[in-house]
Every structure is written in structure tokens, then in C-alpha cells.
Design brief:
The protein is mainly alpha-helical and 540 residues long. 56% of the residues lie in helices and 6% in strands.
């Protein structure tokens, strides 16, 4: 699996540090055969190995053998059955020949005194194998071959021999199969580099385009969500429970007095905010659980930050649609929200969808900005509660001190609340009684005021001042008795909400509010991209 993950990035060279450690003989042979096939596909495989068997050792084409201190003892082709390496070591004076059928890897280590059974007390020839290699024809051939390859490479990249001598042994890179047999033949490198050294039409460091990366990441994220019901399904169930509780609180609510109006406002506001905040709160630890994988894959240039950022943001959309489709009808029809026309319902669907997407974007931004889930959750939820206070529902705009007005306009809850409240109460013909809809005869001062009005208006009183009464009428012939039935003053629900309770909310801004929410989403996606590009929370 680890090899497969590395090969996804389509590397031209692979480094393996003891890939057979901890494996039995069969598993080790399978791994080495896979690496052998990878090498035959045109990639260079550099591998350290510990106590290989004869079968595994014969998979290798070349060997770099080091002694204690990092000095080179042998560097070259092994040959069939390790013949070239055996012949080289046997050419050293006083070296015993390799027994027939003996593991050449074990034999060479014993020869140089590095075997597991090496014993300092055993009398063996005192040979400095590193010095032997340094003076050997093999080393001279290796140096000449390297110099020739570098000259060929420099000529392909427009570097003169004089410049090459100034550069020493440094190479500007391998850009052609003519320059090195280890050139990555499986990738069309002409798409990314130019043999003349000039920038080509594409200078991407990635094997696939941004769009292909995005599609692959989005597909993987969708599978991850589908295979993580403990997150995706549990979140949906909890939100539905929240919604059912809200719906039961305000089941079949009617607009009769101020309390009913306030109850409906609370119902809409908290449904649109608390359930969305729960989405954010649960998303943060789930997003952080994949951070280590992101850092690893990004370091290997498997994909760009842009592709990962948008794949993370859009993978939530199917689940948002499912959540909206299951919770909005529940809260809307059980609590008798505005059903005069289709528009308030459609707007409610659209606004809740945007709020959920905005909360998702906010959660991903917090997850990328902070090093751990707890800090991200506390900061995000604290910020959201602050923005809720300044949205105009808890504290009207006209009651805010002027230094806090920027918070009012910055709060995205202001725009979601404005759109939802104005569309839900616009055109509502229900009349409510102020203040409470209960008989007011217990208040003598109110009776006196009403009597003064009756004496002033006389028979025209009910027409000039619409009233609510327990029996639905006002007997002007017996005003004192009639006053006992008065429960308040009539006022239209739309007028009370839009002209008094939320006088700063405008129905004409309903589409602008959706636009502002969408802008907030794009801003949060951009901020997340910047943070992911420049901040790395890895501890090592």
C-alpha cells in the first residue's frame, strides 16, 4: 500500500529504506518483485536491504557496498548471479573464493568483515577494501562514465564544456533519455520542460492538470464520507433530532399576539443558526483527522493546494442537500411558516443551503488555521456567537453603540436573518393583539385612557382605533362593560415585524442577502487556500 501511494505521484526515482524489514520470506520476495517490475518500467529504484536472501539479492542490477565509516567498497553491476561482484572481490589478494551455492550477500559481508558473524578475534587478511576500490579500474570506469553522462547532459541543456568545468560535478537535471538510462520514460516530460532550457507552454510540477486533480480528490472525498457513517450519518441524525424538537416547540403555531410573533422569529433564527453551527463543530475534527495525509501527499506533489481546497469545500454539498431536503420541510410545514405563495418556501431552501455551505467553509478555515481541533472549535464557535449577537435580532441596530456598527454589517447572520425574516413575514395578513391578547381590565390607568378616547371619538371610536376583544365586538352603549372585554390593539403581523421589531431589515434586499452569503463563502475559501499554502502545522 505504501508503494502504491508513492507511485500515484508518478515519480522518476523511488527511495526505499529496508522495504523487507519485518516481512517473512514470501512477503519479502513479493515486495522485491514489485520493485523489480517498477524498475523495469523506466523508474530508478534505490533500495537499502538488510540480510537479503539469494533470490532477493539477485533482483538487484547494481550494488553500492559500503564499509564502516561510509567508505565505498564496491560500486557497479552485480551481473547474473552476482558474478561481477564476486569476481571483483575474489580478485583481491588473500580473499577466499565464494563457495558454490553460498549466498553472495552473506559472503561479501564476511569478506569485508561486516557480517553478522564477524569476530575480531578471527584471523583474516588485513585488507583495506576501500583503498582497493579507490585504486581500482572499476572506480576509474565509474568516474569516466559519470563524466561522460554529465557532458552529454550539459550539451543537451546548452552548457558548454568550459561552463561544465566551472560548475564541477553539478548537473542541471536530466531532461532526455539520451542523457541517462534512468530518465523517467513513462511521463511526457516535454510537457513540463524544454530541451533548450526555455520555459514551455506548461511549467506545472504535477503530472495531472488542476481539473483532473480536483476530480480525483472530490471522488476520493465522496468515498471517504460514504465510508464514514459515524460522521456523516450521525450528524444528519442529530440535526434531524434538533429540528424535530424545534418543530414540536412551535407545532402549528398561529399568530395571535406578540408572543406568537417572537416565537416564530426565534424558531426561524435558531433553526438557521444552531443546526448550522453544529455542522461546523463536528466538521472540524473530521477535517483535521486527514491533515497528516494531506501534508504527506502535498510534499510529494501529488496535487495542488487549489485542487485540495475546492475538493474539501464541495464534498459537503451532497450532504448539505440531503440535510436541507430532510429538515426544512419538517420545520416549515409543522410550524406553519409562510405558505401564501411558493416563493418564501423556495427562498427558505436556498438561504439554508447557503448558510450550511458557509458554515462548512468557516469550519474548514478554522481547521486549517489552528493546530488542533479543540482550539479550532473554540475559536470558530466563539466567533459565530459574537456575530450572532450583532445580527440585529438580539440587539436591534438602532440600539447598538456606534463603535459596534461595523460588526453589524460584517455579521453574515445579519444577511441570512434579513432574508429569512422579510420573506417569511412579507404579505402576512394575520392580525395580532398588542400587547398580550389578554383582558386589560386589571390595569385601571389603561381603562381611564380608553374612556378618554371613547369620550373623544364617541361612536366612531371602534373605527378610529381597531381593538381586540374577547367577544369580537365593542358595545359603545355600555363602554365601561365593554372595556372589560378589551384584550389589546390590532396590528398586522407584517407591520409589527418589518416596521417595528426589525425596522432595519428590508424586503427589497432579499436577493442581495443571498449574494452577500455567497461572497462570504468565496472569501472563506480564498482565506483557507492562503492559510493552507503558507502555514504548516507539522511538528517535525
Amino acid at each position: 500500500l505504501t508503494l502504491g501511494v508513492e507511485l500515484v505521484a508518478n515519480p522518476s526515482i523511488i527511495f526505499c529504506d529496508e522495504p523487507t524489514s519485518g516481512l517473512d520470506a514470501r512477503a519479502a520476495a513479493i515486495v522485491m518483485r514489485v520493485l523489480w517490475k517498477v524498475a523495469r518500467s523506466g523508474r530508478t529504484v534505490v533500495c537499502t536491504i538488510h540480510q537479503p536472501s539469494t533470490v532477493i539479492f539477485n533482483f538487484f542490477d547494481d550494488l553500492l557496498l559500503l564499509k564502516r565509516g561510509g567508505e565505498v567498497v564496491f560500486f557497479g553491476e552485480l551481473g547474473k548471479g552476482s558474478k561481477k561482484m564476486i569476481d571483483y572481490l575474489q580478485s583481491v589478494p588473500n580473499v577466499k573464493p565464494c563457495p558454490k551455492g553460498f549466498n553472495p550477500a552473506t559472503w561479501m559481508l564476511e569478506v569485508i568483515g561486516a557480517g553478522t558473524g564477524a569476530d575480531e578475534s578471527v584471523d583474516r587478511p588485513k585488507v583495506n577494501f576501500a583503498q582497493v576500490y579507490a585504486n581500482s579500474d572499476l572506480k576509474r570506469r565509474n568516474d569516466d562514465a559519470l563524466e561522460t553522462k554529465l557532458l552529454e547532459l550539459n550539451s543537451l541543456n546548452g552548457v558548454s564544456k568550459e561552463s561544465h568545468n566551472l560548475l564541477g560535478m553539478r548537473s542541471p537535471g536530466i531532461t532526455s533519455s539520451l542523457a541517462s538510462p534512468y530518465y523517467h520514460a513513462n511521463a511526457d516530460m516535454t510537457e513540463y520542460t524544454s530541451l533548450e532550457g526555455n520555459a514551455s507552454k506548461s511549467e506545472s510540477i504535477y503530472v495531472r492538470s488542476q481539473w483532473e486533480q480536483f476530480k480525483a480528490l472530490l471522488r476520493r472525498n465522496l468515498q471517504t464520507y460514504w465510508r464514514s457513517p459515524e460522521f456523516s450519518l450521525n450528524r444528519l441524525i442529530v440535526v434531524m433530532i434538533f429540528t424535530t424538537i424545534f418543530a414540536c416547540f412551535f407545532f402549528r403555531s398561529q399568530l395571535r399576539d406578540v408572543a406568537d410573533i417572537e416565537g416564530r422569529i426565534v424558531n426561524i433564527f435558531f433553526f438557521s443558526s444552531l443546526t448550522c453551527i453544529y455542522n461546523l463543530y463536528t466538521l472540524v475534527p473530521f477535517a483535521l483527522s486527514r491533515r497528516a495525509l494531506y501534508y504527506r501527499e502535498r510534499a510529494q506533489n501529488m496535487y495542488s493546494v487549489w485542487a485540495f481546497n475546492w475538493a474539501e469545500g464541495l464534498v459537503e454539498m451532497p450532504w448539505i442537500f440531503v440535510q436541507v431536503a430532510t429538515t426544512v420541510p419538517l420545520i416549515y410545514f409543522m410550524t406553519n411558516l409562510n405558505m401564501d405563495t411558493w416563493f418564501p418556501l423556495a427562498y427558505f431552501f436556498a438561504c439554508i443551503t447557503l448558510i450550511l455551505w458557509l458554515m462548512t467553509s468557516f469550519g474548514l478555515f478554522a481547521a486549517s488555521l489552528f493546530p488542533d481541533a479543540l482550539a479550532a472549535q473554540l475559536a470558530a464557535v466563539g466567533s459565530l456567537i459574537t456575530l450572532m449577537v450583532f445580527c440585529g435580532i438580539m440587539v436591534p441596530k438602532q440600539n447598538l453603540p456606534w463603535p459596534y456598527l461595523p460588526m453589524y454589517y460584517a455579521s453574515f447572520f445579519k444577511y441570512s436573518s434579513e432574508g429569512l425574516m422579510t420573506t417569511q413575514f412579507h404579505g402576512i395578513s394575520d392580525e395580532i393583539c398588542l400587547p398580550s391578547g389578554r383582558p386589560i381590565v386589571e390595569e385601571p390607568w389603561i381603562i381611564e385612557k380608553m374612556l378618554d378616547l371613547i369620550r373623544h371619538f364617541r361612536p366612531d371610536f371602534p373605527q378610529h382605533l381597531p381593538i381586540c376583544s374577547t367577544n369580537g365586538r365593542f358595545d359603545i352603549a355600555h363602554p365601561i362593560a365593554a372595556l372589560k372585554n378589551i384584550t389589546g390593539i390590532k396590528i398586522a403581523a407584517e407591520k409589527f415585524v418589518l416596521d417595528d421589531f426589525a425596522r432595519d431589515y428590508e424586503y427589497d434586499n432579499r436577493f442581495l442577502d443571498l449574494g452577500v452569503l455567497l461572497v462570504w463563502i468565496l472569501v472563506l475559501r480564498a482565506l483557507t487556500f492562503i492559510v493552507m499554502l503558507n502555514i504548516n502545522h507539522q511538528k517535525r
